[in-house]
Amino acid sequence: MPGCLHGIADAAAGFAYSRRMTESERALPLAGASNFRDLGGYGAADGRRVRWRRLFRSDHLAALTPHDTDVLARLRLARVVDFRGREERAAQPYELPAVRYRAVPIEPTVVRRYRELAARGERLDVAHAERLMVDTYQGFVADDAPQLAEFFEQLLADDAPLVFHCTAGKDRTGYAAALLLLALGVPREAVMQDYLLTNRLYRKPPPPGDDATTRAVHEVIWGVRAEYLQTALDAMEREHGGVQAYLRQRLKLSEAGHRRLAELYLEAPLR
Q: Whole-model pTM above 0.85?
């Protein structure tokens, strides 16, 4: 993966994509969203690749500028799936012209707990923060399958360009992106690389204090680590026999659904 993310040039060609695009061209340079990127181009099942300009992941979209909105219109963005919880949506609402919006709430846990403690002046140490992050990913597998099943229902409806997001676009969104890419046959190494791109792209909020412990905890809470996602993958292996079995058993993704997902979001194989 290149060490520098340059973003997609806002060119007269209208964000032309090709199968030769590199990882460095994956992120969109939006002023009001820092973690908006295309999931296209990854190698997937049967030697095919994920289609460009169909699937996007992001942090929240409530701070988009008029220019940002124009950029998304040029991408022909047509659908949004919002994983934010009820209070998050109420605090930072938004509406995009001509874009179908669907709330699929997964209520936050770690960040909410972190903010509650900070508001009371209580301290959270690094070990506790790491435990909360691991528990969150175990909770995705154990508790949030209905929301992810609804997400896949939206994906299977049609192939109109879709963005899914939460607040930071890192945990709920990162987990959903991993499931989607794995369902499409993208290798785990590439899935993990996509997950970890958040650490380069997301503009973190400032920490609530300047001491070393607060800064360290802040990095844990607002970043992503391979072991967080691996915790979820391990839980699927342990409890369901693997990711594909989890998709079938808990998200009700049938063989026909799998085929349709590939038809919608993978490029046709070269002849």
A: yes
